[in-house]
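Can't paste images in this forum, so I'm doing it all in text. The chain is below; anyone willing to post the predicted structure tokens underneath?
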Amino acid sequence: MSKYATTEITSAEIPSDNPVHQRLYFPYTEAAKIIHGNVLELGCGWGRGVETLIEKCDHYTGLDKNEPLIEQLQAAHPRHTFRTADLPHLSAFKDNTFDFVVTFQVIEHIQDDHQFLAEAARVLKPGGKILLTTVNRPYSLSRNPWHIREYDTAELRGLMQKYFSKVETFGVGGNQKVWDYYEENKRSVNKIMRFDIFDLQHRLPAWVLRIPYEVLNRFNRNKLMTETGGLAAEIRWDDHYLSDEPEKCIDFFFVGTK
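Text version of the structure:
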């Protein structure tokens, strides 16, 4: 299933995607430490962490808009439930249904982020938790035309506090290998962005930028794979850790309690 991949739907099998894939997989390992019971994942994609979550819960429900991926996942995991969904709408589910909602790198793609969180809170049982990751805007290296918006720490905390009684704020930290790769990536992206003398990345509509973004992003990742002398291939999920300084991390890991 991971063969269905763009630079936005990062693959586990494309070598140059490895640093991003490992960073995106790490939150599933943290989720697996605490989840139980009935779990809902909003935006399961190609199933990066599905097996990790299934091992730790009684029943798993995965939602995504991509029908072919959902069909593949349902065939692979017939004891669990996979459905196509037009997030943020969760009208198919009753109030107080799930013990945990997991949603990793999804909210930045959702037009109505308030409804997204309100619906997640509605379907959680009292005391249930949402585990949410998204990019930390100050660490974005360029405009991502697939993202509706990005947040800083205070913005995301404030948003989640409107719908959850308690919000714990963490980030996805990394060791020296992770940050060495990030700095190499930053330098490389900045070299590319020097050609955008009219700041078209912020002036043009998102749909115009998506194909150039994909082409340049893939070019950059392949280039880094060669230039970092194997560093891109060496990074693993356990080179990351849960940090209590989210403002200093590439991604947030926030936990909201209903």
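The mean pLDDT is 95. Residues 41 and 62 are 5 Å apart (CA to CA).
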